[in-house]
Specification:
The complex is a heterotrimer of chains A (562), B (244) and C (115).
Chain A lengths: L2 H7 L1 H9 L10 H5 L4 H29 L10 H20 L2 H15 L7 H25 L11 H4 L4 H28 L12 H32 L13 H35 L6 H14 L14 H29 L8 H24 L1 H7 L3 H31 L5 H27 L14 H31 L42 E4 L4 E4 L9
Antiparallel strand pairs in A: 1-2
Chain B lengths: L1 H6 L16 H36 L1 H7 L5 H27 L2 H31 L20 E3 L5 E3 L10 H34 L9 H25 L3
Antiparallel strand pairs in B: 1-2
Chain C lengths: L16 H22 L6 H21 L7 H28 L15
Classes of the chains: A mainly alpha (562), B mainly alpha (244), C mainly alpha (115).
The complex binds copper (II) ion.
């Protein structure tokens, strides 16, 4: 309760705060946004774009689930059903989940957490956003106007023969790939070169380790997707005889190319999510993260392992030799993932746990990621994979990881940084209700799909046998509960922007990383004067001040904050 | 907004220090590391083509030794030398910029541009021959002559087209070789063209005297890119042209 | 700052003209060598020798034209790691495709023909 100490520590900060100038209101007009080089504004623009993509992909998911209410479909023709699930998969994967957390929360928080004024290459950062927009327009227009029916994987030989708009669609994804590469490049360079003197590697928040590991994958793997798609375009447009078997090509080679990128890409999706969860768990347990070094290094280990397991997507196609090697290697990835999970659980142990919305998402993440991760082992083992391959079991597994983990972490991050980003509070009660709806809806949607898969329901089929109907209908009901939950979030966050209570405290959660030690919302150059120094995950000098309903830095006494 | 400007008030404007860097050294090192990271993405971008090459070469050795005969080693060799020369002048351009030798800088950039143009000229002559011989892998693919220039098909007495017994018959997957050839050299050529664009832009900036000992990052980083374009060709040349 | 001439730069190492020209000469000689070697049939050493010469040329370009020898070690590590990933990609793909090659149905009658 040392408001004197508070003023003394942050007098410079508060002088600025008095004028009320922050990155949102320091300049005005559409131009000042579209030409901005400020990483925080770019993050907000990404958030708007990604929300649109999530909405579109979500609508397509509902269309697919509705269509599967009965075994012979409801309204769509078989072709339209193929278009619908391709639209859903491609939009969700390339437009939402892959850019996801790094593009929005990485861009917003990375320089702040580091104590830097911006990312290393602000112009490149803005270019990434424009590439994302261009790629998104390309992809969506080619799918909506011309339709694509290959699924998001564009497997040859079908993708070289179908008469749909594969070339335009792949060019869109190609452009999105470069958006991702440039974001990753920016983050790697920023973390290496823009750390202030006091910020050593081992003092970085785990979110930054997660983003760093992600960025390594983006830089190393995404170019391979680029060349793969270019070759596919060349194969379709000319007929270069590399992938098309009718021209002497090897269609399986395409799968090697595709998964050399796309397996690491699943870690592009999950690693930043793990970074977010490390922050949420520690801050909302009011306790130092357990096993900091283990979590940090396991991020890098996951990034490294991710490059040697791609063949597990090809078990029914590859040589027996390849199968054995890739199956054995696949199990290695489970080790660093488990290291993280156990460390999060150990952090929770005897923490002062606050069950607010961000924390509920973090706990949901641990549960859902546990299921998603463990079911991955069934698919990594050769004998069980032959049975489960291309069934709903696979669909359920990757949705647990991509939606149950990454989307949940995205939502957790959204609630966690929302007050800092916009200086507005959201309705906590509605947020909790929405989180529970999302959690229930998600499980009702995808748990039945595990059962469907083990019983032999193949993925991507429009029609199914009567015995699968009950589980399919349960799944559809779940999808709508999930949709209601997500829609509720949209509503109260919009309300928060328009008429939400102003948040003026720097540190509403008692976070220990640097973004909580600057004003809310942060000023244009992130910090007034030199960035503060503070040990991350050290909460002993962060105390709750009831007068401002927020946390303040207190150098006075060393007892743990509540 | 003013605080960052004040922060750099004491730095010599010749360093062109951007607002978010602490010092010219940090700005230079950041740019350099960024370029190295970008070069890694370039290497991995090409990796797909090298993988396709390796897979097809290891499985179809005969195809490669036959098809390589279509490529003109002399032109390939000249092009290698031209590209190495351009690498030299680009490295020299960096030196000139570092030492503030404005005339030398502009001269080196122009020579680099000319070499790059020469490379693309020779490349287009080669492409023209291949396309003329029906070796471009599109719907009209089909070699007219074997690697020694002997027509693969002749007209017999009755006027029908038959296989020429004097020619070495083309292997089945000739298209795949030329698919790989055109993708590899085409993507490399595209990188040369992009490099030419950037170097021309640098030349325009150099004419305005923007570079000097305190600010030569763009020259240095573009040179790194240009050397990687050279590096890739150093591998493409023996892998495509010099197969027994 | 101990430099005697004005051949010095405060931000980065300046490459002497002699070194630049020497590397250029070496690259030309090696190009000639690889062409000359290719005119002889060395059986299975053909490819390895060509690759060795190309690698030597690449190392020369990287060390001197690209200043890696005088640069931060980390930049070199980044570059080498990139190349290692390329080798990983190539070797696993070649291993697997080589193993299933005999089962591949290419140009077979039941493969759908090009449009
Ligand atoms: Cu995978």
């Amino acid at each position: 309760m040392s408001s004197e100490a508070h003023v003394a520590d942050g007098s410079a900060v508060h002088a600025e705060h008095e004028t009320g100038e922050n990155y949102l209101n320091c300049s005005h007009g559409l131009r000042s946004w579209l030409l901005t080089l400020d990483h925080k504004r770019i993050a907000v623009m990404y958030l708007a774009g990604l929300a649109g993509a999530l909405f579109l992909g979500g609508i397509m998911a509902l269309v697919v689930r509705l269509e599967l209410w009965t075994g012979d479909g409801l309204v769509l023709s078989d072709d339209l059903y193929n278009h619908a699930f391709t639209l859903h998969g491609a939009i969700m994967t390339f437009l939402f989940i892959i850019p996801g957390i790094p593009a929005v929360f990485g861009n917003f928080a990375l320089p702040l957490m580091l104590g830097a004024k911006d990312v290393a290459f602000p112009r490149l950062n803005l270019l990434s956003w424009y590439l994302w927009i261009t790629g998104a327009v390309f992809a969506i227009v080619s799918m909506v106007v011309g339709a694509v029916d290959t699924g998001w994987t564009f497997y040859t030989p079908y993708s070289t023969q179908t008469s749909t708009q594969v070339i335009n669609m792949t060019m869109g994804v190609f452009i999105l790939g470069f958006s991702s590469i440039f974001t990753g490049l920016n983050f790697v360079v920023t973390i290496h070169k823009l750390r202030p003197a006091g910020m050593t590697w081992w003092r970085m928040p785990l979110m930054l380790w997660g983003l760093y590991a992600t960025a390594i994958i983006q830089v190393l793997a995404t170019p391979v997707l680029g060349i793969t798609l270019l070759l596919l375009v060349a194969e379709r447009a000319l007929g270069v005889g590399i992938f098309d078997p009718s021209l002497g090509g090897d269609p399986l080679l395409y799968q090697h190319f595709f998964w050399f990128y796309s397996h690491p890409a699943v870690y592009i999706m999950i690693l930043p999510a793990m970074g977010v969860i490390s922050e949420l768990i520690s801050v909302h347990s009011r306790k130092t993260i357990f096993g900091y070094h283990a979590i940090a290094l396991s991020s890098v280990a996951i990034a490294a392992f991710s490059f040697i397991v791609w063949g597990h997507h090809m078990f029914t196609a590859m040589s027996p030799m390849g199968n054995m090697i890739f199956s054995a290697l696949t199990f290695s990835v489970s080790i660093p993932s488990a290291v993280k999970t156990f460390n999060w659980l150990a952090t929770l142990y005897r923490g002062h746990i606050r069950l607010n919305a961000p924390m509920l998402y973090a706990l949901a993440f641990i549960f859902l990621f546990g299921i998603g991760g463990l079911t991955g082992l069934f698919l990594g083992a050769l004998a069980t994979d032959i049975h489960l391959h291309d069934t709903y079991f696979v669909v359920a597994h990757f949705h647990f990881v991509m939606v149950g983990s990454t989307l949940i972490a995205f939502l957790g991050a959204l609630h966690y940084w929302w007050p800092k980003m916009f200086g507005k509070a959201y309705d906590e009660t509605l947020a909790k209700i929405a989180c529970i709806l999302v959690f229930i809806g998600f499980n009702v949607t995808f748990l039945p799909q595990f059962v469907l898969g083990t019983r032999g329901m193949p993925r991507r089929y429009h029609n199914f046998l009567p015995e699968f109907q009950g589980l399919h209908q349960a799944s559809t009901v779940g999808a709508f509960i999930l949709a209601i939950g997500l829609f509720l979030i949209l509503v109260y966050l919009w309300k928060s922007l328009v008429s939400g209570k102003k948040v003026t405290v720097d540190n509403p959660w008692g976070g220990s990383s640097l973004e909580w030690l600057t004003t809310t919302p942060p000023p244009h150059y992130n910090f007034v004067g030199e960035p503060p120094e503070h040990d991350v995950y050290d909460y002993h000098d962060i105390r709750y001040d009831a007068a401002i309903d927020g946390y303040v830095l207190s150098k006075n006494e060393g007892d743990a904050a509540r | 907004m003013s605080s960052a400007a004040d922060h750099h008030a004491e730095v010599d404007p010749a360093y062109r220090l951007a607002h978010h860097f602490e010092s010219p050294e940090q700005q230079f090192e950041t740019g350099k590391f960024g370029m190295w990271a970008f070069l890694v993405t370039e290497i991995l971008f090409f990796s797909g083509l090298f993988t396709a090459y390796s897979v097809y070469r290891s499985n179809e050795a005969d195809l490669f030794s036959y098809a390589s005969g279509y490529l003109d080693t002399t032109l390939g060799c000249i092009n290698t030398a031209v590209l190495i020369l351009s690498s030299l002048t680009m490295a020299w351009a960096v030196r000139c910029a570092q030492l503030g030798q404005q005339r030398g800088l502009k001269f080196c950039l122009i020579v680099t541009l000319l070499c790059a143009g020469g490379f693309m000229g020779i490349k287009s002559v080669e492409y023209h021959h291949k396309i003329h011989n029906g070796l471009f892998p599109n719907a009209h693919f089909g070699a007219h002559e074997d690697p020694d220039g002997v027509p693969l098909h002749i007209t017999d007495e009755s006027g029908a087209t038959v296989a020429n017994p004097a020619a070495r018959p083309a292997p089945e997957n000739l298209r795949s070789f030329f698919g790989i050839y055109f993708c590899m050299t085409g993507l490399h050529g595209l990188h040369v063209l992009i490099g030419m664009g950037v170097i021309f832009w640098l030349y325009l900036r150099a004419r305005r005297g923007e570079f000097g000992p305190k600010y030569f990052g763009p020259i240095d980083f573009t040179a790194l890119y240009w050397h990687v374009v050279d590096l890739i060709w150093i591998f493409l040349f023996p892998l495509l042209y010099l197969i027994h | 700052m101990t430099d005697n001439h004005d051949h010095h730069n405060e931000l980065a190492h300046v490459m002497p003209v002699k070194v630049l020209l020497g590397v250029f000469g070496a690259l030309l000689v090696l190009t000639g060598a690889t062409v000359w070697v290719a005119t002889h049939d060395l059986g299975r050493f053909d490819l390895s020798l060509a690759l060795i010469i190309a690698t030597v040329k690449a190392v020369l370009v990287a060390l001197y034209f690209m200043h890696l020898r005088y640069d931060k070690v980390f930049n070199a590590i980044v570059f080498v790691v990139g190349i290692l990933f390329v080798i990983l990609f190539i070797s696993l793909a070649v291993m697997d495709t080589g193993n299933y090659q005999s089962q591949l149905l290419r140009n077979a009658d039941h493969v759908i023909r090009y449009r």
